[in-house]
Specification:
- The chain has nine helices and no strands.
- The chain is mainly alpha-helical.
- The model has no long low-confidence stretch (mean pLDDT about 85).
Length: about 190
Amino acid sequence: MPRKRLELDARRAQLLSLGLSAFSTKSYDAVSIDDLAQSAGVSKGLLYHYFPSKRDLYVATVREAAERLLAQIVPDPGLSPLEQVSRGVDAYLEYVGNNADAYLSLMQSGVGRDREVHAIVERTRQRFVQVMLERAGPIQLSPMQRVLVRGWVGMVEAASLDWLKQPGVERRELCNSLVGALLHALQ
């Protein structure tokens, strides 16, 4: 592929996009920096200029995916609290459905082995809960509710994984059930 000069931000975005695609469809070990550099039309040295190691590229792709997810789940604050929560959960499921390979790869790739990746995933979970609770209205959580809401996030993740692997449940139906579970936990 002929080499093309890109601005710094454009090149970094291109490499992140290629990394997201590669890590979404292949295991970490199967992703080749040589192949990524060739796909980008750059030298391996230039790729390493942006991301000093394959792990750095992987961590950056996880961070990028998390930021995209979080950007999508923030609903219109002009809606009612219940509608905001519903739209936020639906947006989460829409992201999962539109990025199935990436979501499956992230959630099943042994995230716990890499502290930095685990921290990104954990911050994303916390931010998701924070957004949903902010949208539900002013709530002072009891210790039991805090535990239940944390468990609800695990339920959302597990239900999303199952939904991707065994389609048959409509997204709206799943969304309504997940919102209902959150509301029950908050009662």
